Amino acid sequence: MKFDFDARYFNPEHTLDCGQVFRFSRYKDGFLSLSADKICYVHTDGVKTVVESDDTDYFYNYFDLDRDYAQIVERAKSYNIPLLTRSAESCKGLRILNQNREEMIYSFIISQNNNIPRIKGIISRICEGLGEKRSSPFGEYYTFPTTSALAGADVSFFRGAGAGYRDEYLNKTSNAILKNGIQKLEGLDGEELKRELLTYTGIGPKVADCIALFGFGKMQSFPVDTWVEKIYREDFGGTLKDRKKIAAYFVETFGEYSGYIQQYLFYGKRLNL
């Protein structure tokens, strides 16, 4: 089964390569994208972006295709900030995904003080070791492990997968989630959610912001890393040093559009727009 969407506002490469997700790979004319236990093939064909999957409803929601990004792009450009204007226009097909929440918690624990190729490698090895092998029209793949599977693994497994010091974080947090679930996180506002996420082993402020934004859709989040610090100094003339204060500055400036704008700025800076 498949569906298509206006390619102007759905660019698979920009959406998958902007640092919000790690389980994707190039395939034929586009990408294989994996989430939880599901897989799709997404590619652009002329003026349309096409998604092929046995789980089309899931991926329609995953790629946030009910939301009008034309309005978001125009709002971003209305601030008249040169980098943001260039990025929003050039990357108007970048969409913020609706990702599996538990997968995001574990993925962003792995992401801290790490680079994207290495993060992808660690997650891939964990999926191969603890996930289920599945067949699809696009070949075999591994599902993301359940919390039960993660919690049942020894610290040494995560270390062997390349997680480094994050091995204990994954072990302790998966066991905490196995015991208590994440239902208590549902329905919390952004700040309450981030405070609760900080109680998990291995989750600091930046990782909590990422999980809140990419796992729970809290758009009044603005993750700050070295790229965003660079943007703050070079494109906003900022002088603050504390990342929490920098994040607060951006959220105060952009409000409910903060998450979208963070991605335009972050990805645009990486592309040297």
Structure classification = alpha+beta
N-to-C span:
36 Å
Helix segment count?
A: 14
Helix content: 40-55%
Topology order in helix (H) and strand (E) letters: EHEEEEHHHHHEEHHHHHHHH
Radius of gyration: 18 Å
Task: Kindly summarize this structure in a few lines.
By secondary structure, the chain is α+β, with helices and mostly antiparallel strands. 50% of the residues lie in helices and 12% in strands.
Structural description of this entry:
- The mean pLDDT is 96.
- With 273 residues, the protein is of the alpha+beta class.
- The longest helix has 15 residues, at 116-130.
- 50% of the residues lie in helices and 12% in strands.
- The chain is globular.
- A five-stranded antiparallel β-sheet has the order 1-5-4-3-2.
- Helix 3 packs antiparallel against helix 4 and helix 5 runs antiparallel to helix 11 (205-214).
- The chain has helices at residues 12-16, 56-62, 69-77, 82-90, 101-111, 116-130, 147-151, 155-160, 166-180, 190-197, 205-214, 226-236, 243-254, 258-270; strands at residues 2-6, 24-27, 30-35, 38-45, 48-52, 133-134, 141-142.
- A hairpin with a 2-residue loop joins strand 2 (24-27) and strand 3.
SSE arrangement:
Blueprint: E1 2-6, H1 12-16, E2 24-27, E3 30-35, E4 38-45, E5 48-52, H2 56-62, H3 69-77, H4 82-90, H5 101-111, H6 116-130, E6 133-134, E7 141-142, H7 147-151, H8 155-160, H9 166-180, H10 190-197, H11 205-214, H12 226-236, H13 243-254, H14 258-270
Antiparallel strand pairs: 1-5, 2-3, 3-4, 4-5, 6-7
Helix pairs in contact: 3-4, 4-14, 5-11, 10-11
